[in-house]
Amino acid sequence: MARSYLIGVTGGIAAYKSCELVRLLVKAGHQVRVVMSEAATHFISPTTFQALSGHPVFTDVWDARPENAMAHIELSRQADVFLIAPATADCLARLAQGRCDDLISTLAAARTCPLVVAPAMNRQMWENPPNQRNVQQLRADGVQVFGPAHGEQACGEVGDGRMLEAAQLFDLLQGCHQPKILAGKKVLLTAGPTFEPIDPVRGITNISSGKMGYALARACRDAGAEVTLVSGPTALTEPVGVHTLAVRQAREMLAAVEQSLSGQDVFISVAAVADYRPAEYHEHKIKKQHEGVPTLSLLENPDILATIAARADAPFCVGFAAESRNVLEFAEAKRQRKKLPLLVANLAQAAMGADDNEIVLLDDAGQHPMPRMEKSAVAWAIVQHIAQMLATASQH
Ligand code: C5P
User: In testing the pocket of ligand 1, which one of 267, 269, 328, 334 has its CB within 8 Å of the most ligand atoms?
Assistant: First the structure.
């Protein structure tokens, strides 16, 4: 859905990342308007943002270009989200106090849309107690705080305070509108395939891309949950704001899930776990045989979902069933066998690797079919269903 974003740029070197963010938003079909503090113009010229956004850039509350000469109201009223990136320590302090002494602070005060800040500063400034108080105050006021990240800083020091990358801000912005229907909940997910090695260069795996599991991890994060993602090998980027653990084999996946299980409210098992693994691992590459064909004997892997669902302290468990035929019949049998309150059924050929998916949710109330949608929309529909079931369960 095309949205209208107002981006406020304050005076930090991370302003260069905001150029890329504006480009990403425009490329995705969104409307972007940029406002800058006077200090920001020392790092990036307003002309750069004007060229990237396709709109004039405002820096001054006294700018007479808006028809009613009220830039401070006009600009934020047209926006669906106001993101300040980078937000300096000084900017955060003025927002926390509700001061209105420049265009950006005045726009924040006069806005009707959600406000998001992406702090960027030296690690000492980030940890400075008054700054921490200001961030806490802004969170309490309903402002969303994206980042900052940990790492090397422009000043050469290493610590917390780096602004998130443009792609990460872009990712978080897509979901910042969503209602926080999983606030206070902890969600653990598995995603992707597993890889069961035969020798150093060969193994058994499947065509799962991890896209559905990663989309669900993002949707849970956007719904306000604290999310842990145990991922098999995929080509996907780690979702920002999600604690991601990389594993390879089914047994490693089970161990990571068991280690992360304490305190989890929900476990969603999206991974396409290999049912079997080679009985033997060859330390050296198996040489081609010139007489006969080698045989591969297999051992059964643990069923991660069934193991977790059978525990006395099991969280609310959600399974996935990718079937190539008789989808609903096989899926319901699987739900009963693994004793799951909720199972997501889909046609394997249509789901694995694709960007969209068509699912049916199966629970004690029956079957709930969903239309074919992008995996991000499918993920949000699943999150809504889970949140509803958790709310109903807590009433009883
Ligand atoms: O492979 P199957 O169709 O039984 O998968 C159904 C559900 O069980 C999925 O949610 C999958 O992630 C989970 N599973 C698992 N461990 C396995 C096999 C499947 O957690 N070894």
Answer: 269
